[in-house]
Amino acid sequence: xxxxxxxxxxxxxxxxxxxxxxxxxxxxxxxxxxxxxxxxxxxxxxxxxxxxxxxxxxxxxxxxxxxxxxxxxxxxxxxxxxxxxxxxxxxxxxxxxxxxxxxxxxxxxxxxxxxxxxxxxxxxxxxxxxxxxxxxxxxxxxxxxxxxxxxxxxxxxxxxxxxxxxxxxxxxxxxxxxxxxxxxxxxxxxxxxxxxxxxxxxxxxxxxxxxxxxxxxxxxxxxxxxxxxxxxxxxxxxxxxxxxxxxxxxxxxxxxxxxxxxxxxxxxxxxxxxxxxxxxxxxxxxxxxxxxxxxxxxxxxxxxxxxxxxxxxxxxxxxxxxxxxxxxxxxxxxxxxxxxxxxxxxxxxxxxxxxxxxxxxxxxxxxxxxxxxxxxxxxxxxxxxxxxxxxxxxxxxxxxxxxxxxxxxxxxxxxxxxxxxxxxxxxxxxxxxxxxxxxxxxxxxxxxxxxxxxxxxxxxxxxxxxxxxxxxxxxxxxxxxxxxxxxxxxxxxxxxxxxxxxxxxxxxxx
Length: 510
What we know:
Blueprint: H1 2-30, H2 36-43, H3 45-62, H4 90-124, H5 127-164, H6 169-193, H7 195-199, H8 205-222, H9 229-251, E1 253-256, E2 262-266, H10 275-312, H11 319-325, H12 327-342, E3 358-363, H13 368-398, H14 404-441, H15 446-470, H16 472-482, H17 488-505
Antiparallel strand pairs: 1-2, 2-3
Membrane topology: Multi-pass membrane protein
InterPro entries: 7TM_GPCR_serpentine_rcpt_Srd, Nematode_rcpt-like_delta
Subcellular location: Membrane
């Protein structure tokens, strides 16, 4: 019963925000003061009625001796019977009426109220406030219409089953999930349609910069001497990801893939600079992203060929393999320079639009440089995680031939690499697939426009944490600093043993 009361309260809350907006604008125009508390109490009358009715229903029905004749032991298949709702009683009828008013009646009332607020905005509000409020009202309208779409069919089928006595498993099992669906969508709509919340999505890239700064310090100062090439690869990966996080924080771009050519807007500090400079920074951040993905993939390959050469007692040449893995990065860099040179925007300082950001690029996807650059990004986005996981499975087979201690250490490091490969698989692949879908169909989705950059930035935040945890010397350094687990002397002994094993088995070829 409590979950029904809370549902009524949630629906009432959304409707009251609409009314509050309307009454605020109306009082400003007529120079009147409004009573917020009185309006608040009036709107929450259905919630109070539902609460009182629910209390009466629970007290009255639980005291009924009819309940005592049933066995309440839970049944794994059919669940446990928790209530018998007598809908012909006054409390149940009042409670059901409150639910119907808030789920079906309120969304219908909200639509004409939205039109009235919209008319007030056109005639009496400044352009900047108009854009922000319109965006907010769109979100509120979606939040009220969406429950109507979900609840109306669900409750319609519910009443049909009540009146006819029909047994519908769809109604029994899907009524609660359907009514719960708007609660999942609402926070996303609020974040997208409230401008200050939407603008605060990107700055988590600043946290990535701090984490990568700590990791770079540990790679330089706390890496064993035996790491050699591995130290260089870790340092290169961390620096490229740090650079990527800085560029993302500086640009904070929004890619409108529904337009042709594709429009790119900046909401970060970059919008205060020359638009041509911002265009260059945007293309550079794509190149750095390709380089970071290639670096993680090459670390997998380096581990694999190191073990393979140790088993076959052969020396390997790393340099030419390194160059081959970075061909997409080099190609993306050359293509980005060509794109910026051939497709420059106006170099004058533009007027900044606080709501829509600064347009920094128009990407013409039908040109050869843009198409090839898109192919390089797609190659590293989709292929790198898959190739890394395949190599990871081959490395796991190779380490069974090593000593148990070395096998454990390498397995721990390998787990970190696998996580670094899986995160892009879950973050990059869905978002870029959605991006390419919008490119091909011309569909516009705010989720794709505003969430592409934050979700792409998410692995950049996770990677330094994964590296610091799964590389034993770095983990022991953190433990010794924060007094976790063993003492610093024990950690130093473990570090020395780790360095000795790695130097003997893993990196002797380099």
